[in-house]
Amino acid sequence: MGFGWAAEQGLRYSVRQLKKSERAWRNSPLQELPEQPVWAGPPSNEL
User: Fold this and answer.
1) This prediction's pTM
2) How confident is the model over 24-43, as a mean pLDDT?
3) What is the 3-state secondary structure (H, E, C) of 1-47?
């Protein structure tokens, strides 16, 4: 049960979480929004 094993378990967990959130994103109404991602903030010309 060395570091490699722990890292592999962590990686598998991360991949599982990623797939779960990706599925949630696909089912989310947010993807109907325009291309500009919400977290990108306003375009620089509005600053």
Assistant:
1) 0.41
2) 63
3) CCHHHHHHHHHHHHHHHHHHHHHHHHHCHHHHCCCCCHHHCCCHHHC
